[in-house]
Design goal:
Elements: H1 3-12, H2 18-28, H3 31-36, H4 39-42, H5 50-53, H6 59-74, E1 78-81, H7 89-92, E2 100-105, E3 114-118, H8 125-138, E4 144-147, H9 153-163, E5 168-171, H10 188-193, E6 195-199, H11 211-222, E7 225-228, H12 236-246, E8 250-254, H13 264-271, E9 276-278, H14 281-287, H15 309-321, E10 323-325, H16 326-333, H17 337-349, E11 353-356, E12 360-363
Parallel strand pairs: 3-4, 3-7, 4-5, 5-6, 7-8, 8-9
Antiparallel strand pairs: 1-2, 2-6, 10-12, 11-12
Helix pairs in contact: 1-6, 8-9, 11-12
Length: 364
C-alpha cells in the first residue's frame, strides 16, 4: 500500500478525525506504518481508543479506498498531504487542518499574499460594488482571493478576482465529483484556469449542510486575513471569521447601518474587537504590513460622495488645520458633541477622515 492509499484508508475510518490521524502518524512514523502497527501499541497513544482504530482491515473500507484511488487518477486530481512541502503553509499551522487536500486547477500558493472574502448569500448591490472595488484596488499586490463558491458574496469575490486577472481558490463542501450550486458550473473553467478548487471531502462523502462548517476552516486557514463584506448575526461567514480569530489571523469587516440586518454581524465583530473596521483597501494593506510603495493610490478628495452641510464644516476645518482634538473641532465648527460624534463616524465610513490616538482626527 502506497502512502496515498494509506492516508485514504485512515480518512475512511468513521471515528478518526484529522487531529487523531496526525497524532497517529507523528507517533508511529507514517500512514503506512500506522496501518501495520499492532493495535496494542496504538492503544497506548493518548486519545486513541479501540473505537477509533476499528475497521483498519475491513474489506469494504479497502474496496472504497481502491475506488477513490481510481477516481483520483482518472480525474487527474492532485492530493496534498499535510506532511508534504507543497501543502499550503498557512493552513498547515492550523491544528485541525486536513491531513489530505484534494485539488484541481492551476495555482501557485508559495510566498503569495492570500485573502479570504466571505459574507452573506443575499449580498446587496452596495455589497457587490464594495467587493468589486476592493479587489480591484488590491490588484497591484496580486493577492490570491479565497472563498467558498456559494451564492452571493462568495461568487462575487471569485468573479472579481477573475475580472482583475488574480488567482482565486474555491473551497468546496463536497467531493470533486460534483459542483454546488449547479448554476455556478459555468464559472468552473475560469476558476481552474486562474486558480482552482480545494476540498477535503472524497467522492463518496455525503453532501450535507454540516459540510460547510468543515469547508469554512479551510477558507479561514488558507489565508492571512478574512474579510467579511455583509453578514447577519449568525451564519457561515461569522463562523469563518471566528475561526480566523482562533487561528490568530486578522479579520476585517465592512460596517453598516445599525438597523440593517445584513450589517449586524459585521457591526458586532467590530464592536467586540473581533475584526478591524474596513473602509478601503488601504486598511488591509496597512494592518498586514504590506509594502505600500505607491501601489495603492489614495482616494482623491474631490471624488468623495456628497457631504452634508455639517460634514463639510468639519472637512473644511480639518483641511485647514490638518488634525485636531474632538473638543476643538466641536468648538470651532459649532457642533454639539453628540452630533459631532455621529458626523465623525459617518465621515470615517466614507473614508474621508481617520481617528488618531487621544481623540484626534485627520483627513485621509
Amino acid at each position: 500500500m502506497n502512502s496515498l492509499k494509506a492516508l485514504l484508508t485512515l480518512k475512511k475510518m468513521p471515528h478518526l478525525g484529522d487531529i487523531s490521524i496526525k497524532k497517529l502518524i507523528q507517533t508511529v512514523g507514517s500512514a503506512e506504518e500506522v496501518l501495520k502497527e499492532k493495535k496494542e501499541h496504538l492503544l497506548t497513544i493518548p486519545g486513541i481508543g479501540l473505537h477509533k482504530i476499528k475497521g483498519f482491515n475491513d474489506p469494504q473500507v479497502l474496496k472504497e479506498v481502491d475506488d477513490e484511488f481510481r477516481f483520483i487518477e482518472q480525474e487527474n486530481i492532485s492530493c496534498l498531504s499535510f506532511e508534504n512541502d507543497n501543502y499550503p503553509y498557512l493552513l498547515k499551522q492550523c491544528i485541525d487542518s486536513p491531513v489530505l487536500l484534494y485539488t484541481t486547477g492551476n495555482y501557485q500558493l508559495k510566498n503569495r499574499k492570500i485573502l479570504s472574502i466571505v459574507g452573506t448569500r443575499k449580498i446587496t448591490k452596495q455589497g457587490i460594488q464594495f467587493c468589486q472595488d476592493l479587489v480591484a484596488a488590491l490588484k497591484p499586490y496580486d493577492p490570491i482571493i479565497v472563498s467558498g463558491f456559494a451564492y452571493g458574496t462568495d461568487i462575487t469575490a471569485h468573479k472579481a478576482a477573475i475580472d482583475n486577472e488574480l488567482q482565486t481558490i474555491a473551497c468546496l463542501g463536497h467531493g470533486l465529483n460534483q459542483i454546488y450550486p449547479k448554476t455556478h458550473k459555468k464559472y468552473m473553467l475560469d476558476v481552474e484556469a486562474r486558480g482552482g478548487f480545494f476540498t477535503d471531502f472524497t467522492s463518496t462523502d455525503k453532501f450535507v449542510p454540516q459540510n460547510f462548517l468543515r469547508r469554512n476552516r479551510i477558507v479561514a486557514g488558507l489565508s492571512e486575513a478574512t474579510i467579511v463584506i455583509e453578514s447577519a448575526l449568525k451564519g457561515g461567514s461569522i463562523t469563518t471569521a471566528l475561526m480566523s480569530n482562533g487561528y490568530n489571523r486578522e479579520v476585517f469587516a465592512l460596517a453598516g447601518r445599525y438597523n440593517d440586518s445584513l450589517s449586524a454581524g459585521c457591526n458586532k465583530l467590530i464592536k467586540n474587537n473581533q475584526a478591524h473596521l474596513l473602509t478601503c483597501a488601504e486598511d488591509i494593506v496597512t494592518n498586514l504590513n504590506w509594502d505600500t510603495s505607491g501601489k495603492i493610490e489614495k482616494p482623491q478628495l474631490e471624488l468623495f460622495t456628497e457631504l452634508t452641510n455639517d460634514e463639510d464644516k468639519v472637512f473644511q476645518y480639518l483641511k485647514e488645520h490638518h488634525n485636531d482634538h474632538i473638543d476643538s473641532i466641536a468648538i470651532h465648527c459649532d457642533l454639539p458633541m453628540h452630533m459631532l460624534s455621529s458626523i465623525l463616524l459617518q465621515m470615517e465610513l466614507k473614508n474621508i477622515i481617520r481617528p488618531l490616538p487621544g481623540k484626534h482626527f485627520e483627513l485621509i
